[in-house]
Every structure is written in C-alpha cells, then in structure tokens.
Amino acid sequence: MERRRQMISSKPATELPSTRVAGVPVHELDLEASLDLIDQFIADGTPHYNVAINAAKVVKFHHDATLRTAIEKAHLLTADGKPVVWASRLLGHPLPGRVNGTDLMEALLDRAASRGHSVYFFGAKQEIVETCVAKTRKLYPTLRIAGYRNGYFSQEDESAIVADIAASRPDILFLGFGTPRKEYFMNTHYRALQVPFVMGVGGTFDVLAGLTKRAPRWMQNSGLEWFFRFTQEPRRMWKRYLIGNSQFIALVAKEYILRGRRRP
C-alpha cells in the first residue's frame, strides 16, 4: 500500500472535542469514533500516537512533568478506565464512554486484517510476544504483520530499533511497555518511527498470549476490572490500585469542590 512517509507529524488533535478530568485532557470519543479517527490517521500517513487515560495516569500526570508533556502532545486521548468516565460525569462534562485499551487493540487487529493494514508488536518478553503473534495470526489469518520484537533493550539500542521499525513500514505499532515508559518512548520517537498510529497497550500482550485473564464482562461494566487484576497480582498491584485510586478520588473531589465555588 503506497502512502506518504514524512519526517514531520500532524499536530496534536487539539480541535477534537475534549474535557479535563482532574486537569488531564481526554477526548470525547467512544470506541467507534476512536476507530474512525485512527482510520483517518492511517489514511493521512503521518505519525500519530495515543495515550489511554486511567486513574493511575491522572495521578502521575500531576507529579511527572515528562509524562504530562507526552499526554498533552498526544493525538488521541482515550478514557481507558471507568473511574475516569464516572469522574467526568460528576464534574459536569460527561465522556461518551470508556475506550478500553484491550478492546481497542482487538478492534484494530480486526480492522487491519480486513483493510490490509500492517501491524508491528513491540514489547514484553520474547516468548510472550512470540506467543501473542502466533495466536494473533490464528485469529486473523489475513493480517499483515510487519514485524515484532521484545521490549528488552539498552538506551544505546533505541535509535537502531526505531530505524528498524520505520524500515518495516507498519501502519500500526502496538507498544507493550508499562507506564510511563511507553508514553516517554512514544513522545520521544513517534516522528522518527514514521508510523501513522502508535498505541501503548501495556499488558495486553499478556492477555492476547493467554497468560493473563480479563475480568468477566459484568466486572468490566461495573468498573471492577481493577479489582480483578488486583486479585491476580496483589503484591505488584496493591500500591497502584489501593493508594493510587485514593489519590485519584482526592484529585477529583478537589476539582469538584473548586468548580462548585466558581459557580455564581
């Protein structure tokens, strides 16, 4: 598929309707609208990247200047967590709904397979990314996979890795790093990557590889997916969810009170 490959990027999508949740910008898009916008990014051919906003990222936004810059410059900001959607409603600027990262990735794989777009998987351990790619090929036999590699490398290797990915010319790059590493990487390298759409997917490679289970649908719809993850890895996740969620609630409560005071 021929398309333009430019070393410049589109401007962040500041013209998109958005709201701020505890100071953090989020675009007012549901899953289908996000997919349609990504189609436009791919058709345009210039580099774009997505940051998924959840409660933990809202908290980090206020303490991490580098992460804050990466979020503010992103071309698509999706509400990944139910608490973010609930907070937007409480604050008077409701988002249309949650755009879960795993759901978005799976929908993109399906669209890519049917529309001839190519994808690249970058992140996780070698055996995990290999399993993820193998299972993806079985699910989507027509999908064009431009390449894949694990997420273990030194800083000295970054430029060569970025050049290799750019040379493979994927339409979509799935970045299986944790936060804030993936946001740092996207903001630093998205121009050189020359990929129309880069998406940080965190631990979704583990889900696709069958190593991590998703919460039942009722827990997802009830905003309890975080609790399901916590029960799977309590030692690793307790600080993020128990302390982080409390900090998120405090930030939202502070904004709610301040907005109330500003009303005539």
What's the helix and strand layout?
Layout (H helix, E strand, L loop, with lengths): L17 E4 L2 E4 L3 H14 L4 E5 L1 H7 L3 H8 L3 E4 L2 H9 L10 H15 L2 E6 L2 H14 L4 E6 L8 H11 L3 E5 L4 H13 L3 E4 L3 H5 L8 H5 L3 H8 L1 H29 L2
* Gap between N and C termini: 56 Å
Which percent bin holds the helix content? 40-55%
Counting DSSP H or I runs of 4 or more residues, the number of helices is: 12
> Low-confidence segments, ≥5 residues, pLDDT <50?
1-11
Number of DSSP strand runs: 8
* Largest beta sheet: strand ordering: 4-3-8-7-5-6
Number of spatially distinct domains = 1
Let me know the largest β-sheet. Answer: 6 strands, parallel
Question: What is the string of helix and strand elements?
Answer: EEHEHHEHHEHEHEHEHHHH
Calculate Rg over CA atoms: 18 Å
Q: Which structural category fits the helices and strands? A: alpha/beta
**What is the arithmetic mean of pLDDT?**
88
| Strand content bin | 5-15%
- What would you call the shape? globular
Give structural attributes:
264 residues; alpha/beta; two-stranded antiparallel ribbon; 52% helix; disordered N terminus
Structure description:
The protein has 264 residues and is of the alpha/beta class. It has one domain (18-262). It is built from 12 helices and 8 strands. The strands form 2 sheets. The chain has a 6-stranded parallel β-sheet, sandwiched between helices. Strands 1-2 form a two-stranded antiparallel ribbon. A hairpin with a 2-residue loop joins strand 1 (18-21) and strand 2 (24-27). Helix 2 (55-61) crosses helix 12 (234-262), helix 3 crosses helix 8 and helix 11 packs antiparallel against helix 12. It is globular and about 50 Å long. The N and C termini lie far apart (56 Å). Mean pLDDT is 88; it is low at 1-11.
